[in-house]
Amino acid sequence: MTVALAGKDIGPQIEKALPGSVLESAPGYVMLKPEFLVQAATFLKNDPAMAFDYLNFVTAVDYYDYFEAVYQVTSMTHNHTLMFKTRCYNRVDPVIPSIINVWQGADFQEREVYDLLGVYFEGHPNMKRIFLWEGFEGHPLRKDYL
Hints:
With about 150 residues, this protein is α/β, with parallel strands linked by helices. It is built from three helices and eight strands, in the order βαββαββββαβ. It has helices at about 5-15, 35-45, 105-115; strands spanning about 5, 20-25, 30, 55-60, 65-75, 80-90, 95, 120. The strands form two sheets. Strands 1, 2, 3, 4, 5 and 6 form a six-stranded mixed sheet that branches. Strand 4 (about 55-60) and strand 5 form a beta hairpin. The longest helix is centred in the last third of the chain and has 12 residues, at about 105-115.
């Protein structure tokens, strides 16, 4: 069975490698500053003790005051998993860095979040709608969508 690592245990390790990158280390997740997202993802994938080589999912949640991107990764080598998050407080033009260069599996998942919530992933090579047609107005999973 895959072991879920506690954010409160992994957060300090990320913070040690990337000072100033962690906002919160909770029991179930690590909250990262968005400007450190790609560096932290690279650390989680490449550090031999972590070796998170598989991206389970990328999703996002609209909390009305901010958008929260949620990531779950798994290490096939160590058989453990971790959830980490980041936030974007700009509702007009929300932007979060893309992690597609770390995990290729983020490709369609980041596009899905963009399509349904309108969160743009900066650095994504093909950021366009994946479910709805081009020209569709709005993003239907936003809380303010009519």
